[in-house]
Specification:
heterodimer, A: 174 residues, mainly beta, Glycoprotein, Type 4 Pilin, OB fold (Dihydrolipoamide Acetyltransferase, E2P), 2 domains, 8-stranded antiparallel β-barrel, 4-stranded antiparallel sheet, B: 511 residues, alpha+beta, Rossmann fold, D-amino Acid Aminotransferase, Chain A, domain 1, Dna Ligase, domain 1, 9-stranded antiparallel sheet, 5-stranded parallel sheet
Chain lengths: 174, 511
């Protein structure tokens, strides 16, 4: 099973995806749904999502375009445009399974232009996965950026109160 | 006439090429550096580079465009709208080069492009004009004299550029104390935008509607006016939705303004396509506002309710042919048509320009839908020009069905990679005032301001869940490298930085 933290409009969702008989079971914040996914082209998916109770299947055309920042996407579902951040990288449910897809240096970048409200860690500090590292304020909303996996703070490129552009490197974790 | 050079870009260049193709005429495109791979270049039979991307170095270069026409052996030039379309020097240069200008004579462009002269021509033809000064204010007129003139016209009033268009060089003044400052600001803006700082004063009608009459006039004295277009849905003096017919125009008023438009056209010996703009006050009285001496952005909704190809007629008129349209039929719309101008702007961010690469594009289609666009997937929306990427139009038997069709079309539209005004239109076409046809030229600015930046489309939680599932699924099924930052965007940003350009300074052509 693969788990992700997905952020839309400031709200986090815990999403896990499980393969089952050529289809998928998607669990969003504990709510399970059977999903049939067909890839149409590089940016387009057709999703058939079974509704609770399995009585009806809703059809959604979903466009996913990579944004200017890693793991941030411009998504369109029907007439609704959404900005979606995939916070967690792939994380395996059991520690012993597979290689270490979440290892390697993490470069924490500003997902949007804004102001650094607080840097929450020190150089050399050991951090755990999902530990908040820095708070960025943009459009009057505070956004916490977290480590995706365990590591050590190698470099802090910004200080409290500093203005940053989208894509600015903030913190490096090794 | 066998070969036509199109002195424009984007959707209107494509539109004109289509008419030429259908008439068996060869087409010549011109393009700036950033438009090398643009759709109008790909659709044309021949294409010539005319310079760097900034308009003043390419699409506004009369010499280079005329040279390209000569080199290609073109025998006519179609200016489209914007850029040089209402520039009398361009029309004259084309004629002097022995080519046919597909539009009015340079004299007509000069006369009707000058707002005070156009108002005077309309007055001579017996049309009511909005009360105002007959000529431009003298550059050295003492403030006290100007204040007296303004008081006699009445407040609130508008200070407008004589050479104006698209809301530039225009100021609303409610308080006499602000008059001198507004005149200074309008003069300076007009000087920068049009190279002519002259301004005049006009009374500001409260809550007027903007309606306009398209007309065609041949070189043999025949003038045919068309059913009106309603263009009151404007954002900062820029039209964003047009429809025809207008819910506010009775058959009697339609006959009346059509006859008035034809009168003015005859008064000035106008030829080819043009549009007379009128204001309607709250009591249904009409006032001549100005004339556009060219094809307009919104011409195609007229085509939808009359079945006439206006660009084809422009070319036929320029060839000296006689207009033989049934004049009564042109004033009798079949059904209703509506247009939304889709811009590369972020409506949820103060309509900030959103240039960049289009990764995905699927235009709507099906019954009653027409999409005129110069955009394709893989192209950048340049920062140099008007950010309009498409005109999506819906035709149906009546207005409610046309609106329903437009809503259906907006939902089908997919434009990925840049922000567009699609969500804004989805919102607008659900507003009770819009559905009831109760609006005026400042309606949109008022309701948008009252929203205080609230997003135009707020997806329900279920749709957010679907988006979350989609992105997570793609992450599962896509190699990690493919999820990285989009290379097109990175390249775009680097280019914008090196050229020292900011999206806020982007030029817009007015139409």
């Amino acid at each position: 099973m693969l788990r992700y933290e997905v952020e839309i409009d400031g709200r986090l969702r815990q999403v896990s995806i499980q393969r089952a008989h050529g289809r998928f079971v998607a669990t969003v914040d504990g709510r399970e749904r059977a999903v049939d996914a067909a890839r149409v082209d590089a940016h387009t998916w057709s999703l058939l999502i079974e509704q609770a109770g399995g009585r009806s299947v809703s059809s959604h055309e979903v466009s996913i375009i990579p944004g200017p920042v890693s793991n941030r996407f411009a998504v369109q579902v029907g007439s609704s445009p959404l900005t979606v951040s995939l916070n967690g990288r792939r994380r395996w449910d059991r520690k012993d399974e597979g290689g270490q897809p979440g290892s390697g240096p993490q470069r924490i970048v500003a997902p949007m232009s804004g102001k650094v409200v607080r840097v929450l860690v020190q150089p050399g500090e050991a951090v755990r996965a999902r530990q908040p590292l820095v708070v960025i304020e943009a459009m009057k909303m505070e956004n916490e950026l977290s480590a995706t996996h365990d590591g050590t703070v190698a470099d802090i490129k910004v200080r409290d109160g500093q203005s940053v552009d989208a894509g600015t490197l903030l913190i490096v974790i090794v | 006439m066998n070969k036509i050079l199109i002195a424009n870009r984007g959707e209107i260049a494509v539109r004109i090429i289509r008419a030429c193709r259908e008439m068996g005429l060869s087409t010549v495109a011109v393009f700036s550096e950033c438009d090398r791979a643009a759709l109008h270049v790909r659709y044309a039979d021949e294409a010539y580079a005319i310079g760097p991307s900034p308009p003043q170095d390419s699409y506004l270069r009369i010499d280079r465009i005329v040279d390209a026409a000569r080199a290609a052996g073109a025998d006519a030039v179609h200016p489209g709208y914007g850029f040089l379309a209402e520039n009398e020097s361009f029309a004259a240069a084309v004629c002097d080069a022995g080519l046919t200008f597909i539009g009015p004579t340079p004299q007509a462009v000069r006369l009707m492009g000058n707002k005070t002269a156009a108002r005077a021509a309309a007055s001579r033809a017996g049309l009511p004009v909005v009360p105002g000064t007959e000529a431009a204010l003298a550059a050295d007129a003492p403030d006290a004299d100007v204040a007296r003139v303004a008081a006699s016209i009445g407040y609130p009033l508008l200070v407008k550029a004589v050479a104006g268009g698209g809301g530039k060089g225009m100021r609303t003044v409610g308080d006499p104390a602000d008059l001198a400052g507004a005149i200074r600001a309008a003069r300076s803006e007009a000087g920068a935008a049009f190279g002519d700082a002259a301004v005049y004063i006009e009374r500001r009608l409260m809550r007027p509607r903007h309606v306009e009459v398209q007309l065609l006039a041949d070189e043999h004295g025949t003038v045919v006016p068309f059913v009106e277009r309603e263009c009151s849905i404007q954002r900062r003096h820029q039209k964003v939705v047009e429809e025809t017919p207008s819910v506010a125009v009775t058959p009697a008023l339609r006959q009346n303004i059509a006859a008035q438009a034809a009168l003015v056209a005859r008064e000035v010996g106008y030829t080819n396509a043009g549009t007379m703009e009128f204001l309607l006050d709250e009591d249904g009285r009409s006032y001549f506002l100005e004339m556009n001496t060219r094809l307009q952005v919104e011409h195609a909704i007229t085509e939808m309710v009359t079945g006439v190809d206006l660009v084809r007629w422009q070319i036929r008129i320029a060839r000296g042919e006689r207009l033989d349209l049934d004049a009564d039929r042109m004033l009798t719309p079949v059904g209703h048509a509506i247009e939304c101008r889709i811009y590369a702007e972020d409506p949820d961010n103060g309509f900030r320009p959103s240039p960049g690469r289009i990764h995905q594009l699927r235009a709507p289609s099906g019954p009653g839908i027409r999409d005129d666009s110069g955009a394709t997937a893989g192209l950048d929306v340049p920062i140099f020009y008007d950010p309009m990427i498409s005109k999506v139009m819906a035709w149906a038997e009546d207005r409610p069905i046309a609106i329903a069709r437009m809503r259906r079309a907006l939902a089908e539209y997919r434009i990925g990679g840049i922000k567009t005004t699609l969500p804004f239109f989805t919102w607008l076409l659900a507003q009770p005032e819009f559905l009831a046809g109760r609006f005026h030229t400042t309606y949109l600015d008022e309701v948008v301001a009252a929203r205080e930046g609230q997003p135009f489309v707020e997806p329900p939680a279920e749709i957010e869940d679907v988006a979350a599932i989609g992105v997570a699924l793609q992450a599962v099924l896509t190699p990690a490298a493919a999820l990285d930052v989009d290379p097109g965007t990175r390249r775009w940003k680097a280019q914008a930085r090196t050229e020292g350009l900011r999206s806020g300074t982007m030029g817009r052509c007015e139409a």
